[in-house]
């Protein structure tokens, strides 16, 4: 286990030991180790790299360090900047997990139920990847989650760039219980008044967050962006149905009751999320 | 609070903040019966210094690993252990061929192979075991054992088991009870029918199974483990090891809580066999996955009911069919089925009952003793029927129950007369009349936890509140002729009393009760519990609330014998009988007050020993028609559940459970409340989230993320509104067991409340969100 204090050192350590596995909060990695699924030859701990544990502003965007913990993102100062990401962070498991688990780890694990992922997808976040020799490249978060682009040897997720939209954002998740649990379905929804857009992503129903693009465009065209932005309940309802139909396919005939319940859940989440975003 | 105060007071506690009330633990009155004596190990457990079985260590120990079946049903064509045996660091590899004694075992019927050799019958069944000098080596070696399988069709639907080819030489039917009581032609004016399914609850002990086996110089072996029934485990192990029982010693070490048969014997057998084979101490600590695969679960059950009632809602006849999925081996399924059939009508007067019960083999995960087994499954069903009856008659759910409640002197459908206190009406009245929790709109200043949790998607406009009732019953002690006996020794040496009794405190608090009993009888403050091992006389399993009764009774008798030994010389000197001397507040006083001394002085320099047994009145097996006096005692409970349901998402939050329970007598108020709160919470898990899923017999998600235990946010406010103290005259101290009956009743009450909130039938436990979705205003 090595404990570098800068991104460059971490990349150098990973390059020197190609078999080493980077570890941040360890909430997913250590579970795999304990279950005997993974026995890393070496670990590169990212917990001491201060440059990725905070955030900075960059021409209308926030550059979030990949080492930000869920607990940190859940605090009010962060919530004022990116409310949906803060809500997702607060919903991401019990306090022990939130204290350790990080934004970058959530992306790297890319679990279907990762709570931050639908919000990042809705925000169209860009990942800043650092690599050997001080190289840096940028890829959209959805490309990494879809496997269109992969991390190369020695590369790390350094930062996550998200736009500061100064408009309501909502994250909602259904778990089937009151205590912290894995999402059955989740939704991240953001309003972008400057571009007159509604962006929405559904998590946990597929291997990666799904964007119902047509539903987004349709509902954005209904909104009076210069007025009070409110929509009739029927329009909210229709948006929910539209999103659910796009994100939860039939999977053969007859449609199983499980699929119907999931579709209904997604419809309710999308409807509530849009309703809350438009009234707040 | 003394026992007398507790009898008259209405106790209302909530889970939150209860610990802040009451007397401090150093109070001089904290001793004897009726006091809230804290558990002796509570400090070590909270500080993390309590040695659990997983902490065991011996010099030069080897680590064991078990190879388990990845299939639910397969024929084993060959087992090749050569690659594993040749790995550096591996000291022994054992299979079926290496079992020197009996090759099958079982707590009730010896039908389970120590290691599968011809057929594997469930996912996770042990096939071989390895001892090595490092845990990783042991696991790798176990994985290196090559087993050739021929896959067989897995029988996973218990209804298919009747017609399927035998899964076991003993056949697929483990037990069939056709209970017939009354007139089969009787009919009622109102008939309601229902089909209910109960899922597979896992006892999910937070400390997974662990143990250490140490070979003895005499060729025997000592097994250190968190057993709940050490003598049975010893006898099973000795039979499989081919040793006399006195050459095997089971030592009970830190039990991390148990609500079931804590350790599967199948866990201790490889340990002992490997220790005997290698001559070294061997340790085995199960992974969470192994724990889920290996130990017994609650029987998944399918229930069909038809209730007949007259126009006033009084029950006329109950017809029921109960099908319990026993998994591949019999274990305690016959007993669970007896409880299910006997209590199939619930604590209600039923003139005519026709109940058929079957326990059948499948290739699903094994089922066995989990507290409230049998009784819990039928409670969810018969209470569902009572709700249907209330709806059909247009009367209130509590009212229809009240019109049918059982009381002392009534008959069970087994023909047994209820001779113990049965204050069912009083329990139900207490929870019904307890004020309902306020609605959020009435208390806007309080934060409202919506279904779905603090960061969930709950929306107040979609939330409906429901109120429902559950009334349940369980039997106490082993049933159907089981020889219920316990032996205890009390000694007083050097001013300290010690209790030697092989009754394992699994967290149910027996050790504390035993100390209180001795304090009460002898007036000594310092009472220690000797560690439990099988060199002591047997006390039987920690199950069915036995130990409060039989072991508590044995401790009391032994303590009274010591008391006589202590007082006899004094009484003789004073020329009076010992009955005229009394022990109170640490003093021995004669009836006239003329003689007085302290207990401490009286026992100074003395060594007093006494051993006694307690054996309650015998029971008889249920006959061919399900009739017989099968149970020693019964305990009852009524719960009113208040739930909030987000009817669009189907998420349920249990707001409050009001509990009234028949406890006989309160021996330790704090401990009793804790037992009830714990039982209720386990019931909340069974009602909403706990279900170990299997697909084609293969267990899905055997981990604590996939198997959702209730957290503090899921646990409701538990209000113990009434503890009815009607002493059971045949029980020692008149006390009834308290842990199981809240588990039995809670799921039924919650299902009833969700029915009220949603209008949906809710006939499946646990309640899935899709079953709690409702169309608004329909």
From TrEMBL, chain A:
Cited SUPFAM superfamilies: CO dehydrogenase flavoprotein C-terminal domain-like, FAD-binding/transporter-associated domain-like
Q: Does the keyword Flavoprotein apply?
A: yes
Pfam families assigned: FAD_binding_5
Q: Which UniProt keywords apply?
A: FAD, Flavoprotein, Oxidoreductase
Gene Ontology MF terms: FAD binding; nicotinate dehydrogenase activity
Q: Look up the EC number in the record and give it.
A: 1.17.1.5
Q: What is this protein called?
A: Nicotinate dehydrogenase FAD-subunit
Automatic annotation (TrEMBL), chain B:
InterPro entries under this entry?
Ald_Oxase/Xan_DH_a/b, Ald_Oxase/Xan_DH_a/b_sf, Ald_Oxase/xanthine_DH-like, AldOxase/xan_DH_MoCoBD1, AldOxase/xan_DH_MoCoBD2, AldOxase/xan_DH_Mopterin-bd_sf
Q: Which UniProt keywords apply?
A: Oxidoreductase
A Pfam family matched by this chain, by name?
A: Ald_Xan_dh_C
Give the originating organism.
Streptomyces lavendulae subsp. lavendulae
Superkingdom in the source lineage: Bacteria
Q: What is this protein called?
A: Putative xanthine dehydrogenase subunit D
SMART domains, per database record: Ald_Xan_dh_C
Q: What is its EC number?
A: 1.17.1.4
Q: Which PANTHER family match?
A: XANTHINE DEHYDROGENASE (PTHR11908), XANTHINE DEHYDROGENASE SUBUNIT D-RELATED (PTHR11908:SF157)
Q: Name one GO molecular function term.
A: xanthine dehydrogenase activity
